[in-house]
Amino acid sequence: MRLRARCLVILERIPIRWNRNEYFVGSSIEANIDVHAVNIVVFQHLDVEHLGVLRDFMREDGISLTAVELDRGDAIPDLDGFDAMIVMGGPQDVWEEDRYEWLRLEKKAIAHFVQHLKRPYLGICLGHQLLADALGGEVRLSEQPEVGVMNVMKTASGAADTLFGSLADPIRALQWHGAEVVTPPDGAEVLAYSPACAIQAFRYGEFAYGLQFHVEATRDTVSDWAAIPAYTRALERALGEGAVGRLESEVLDCLPIFNATARQVYNGFKSKFRAATA
After folding, report:
1. Would you call 189 a catalytic residue per the annotation?
2. Element housing 149 (H / E)
3. Identified catalytic residue from 50, 106, 125, 180
4. Sequence ranges of the domains in the chain
5. Check: CATH 3.40.50.880 for 6-276?
6. Minimal CB count within 10 Å: which of 196, 201, 210, 230?
7. Is 214 considered catalytic here?
8. Is 69 known to be catalytic?
9. CA distance 230 to 49
10. What is the pLDDT along the chain (278 residues), one digit of tens a residue?
């Protein structure tokens, strides 16, 4: 058991490690925090697919973030020192191990963290698919790719879930994917679906969650992702020429809803890693 204590402190400078640099945020912020600092490792597959607004929430809480940019050759660190793992999206597919050799190591690390260390995991888009694949599920190309702002519905299990239950139904969400989980790992609970994708979210065990849809959007998300040629091609195939501008406008209109959903997901995930380290 990890010893924890609570105290009221003044945070003068909170170190946040991000993309191999250390940043300091906060200035004379009064907050209730744990004396035991929470350390989260974040696997990234493209520099513009980062934690987004979730990063802001974690900075507010003084959480230490270590980003591992796998596509740039960053080595996976010893995972024993981390309280939770978050795996983000990217242009890769889970079956492209010959092209991206680090995918094999990443899947082993995910399985070890979830099944052996039994610590909280949150996967978004590719991170959702990697969780399924690493634990014995199946991922395939989608018959109908989902790109744009769409609705996601909760299953009965989702409505009863301690993290998912507080979310709206339907969930208004940003989608941008051409592959999907078609078979969840044995024992997983499917939490959400859409007309085009039967497994929009699932939970494995008590602490591991995969979300096919994006909750991390900021006002820069569409423009940042549209700078990636493969993403722009997928967007225009789905929504037609000029789709970038239209989607950017729609995301900005929906951003308060997206950010509220992100806050709820983060609060639910935070309760998981607090429970796991209590």
Report:
1. no
2. strand 138-154
3. 125
4. 6-276
5. yes
6. 230
7. yes
8. no
9. 14
10. 333 333 322 233 333 333 333 333 333 233 344 435 899 999 999 999 999 999 999 999 999 999 999 999 999 999 999 999 999 999 999 999 999 999 999 999 999 999 999 999 999 999 999 999 999 999 999 998 899 999 999 999 999 999 999 999 999 999 999 999 999 999 999 999 999 999 999 999 999 999 999 999 999 999 999 998 888 888 888 888 888 999 999 999 999 999 999 999 999 999 998 888 77
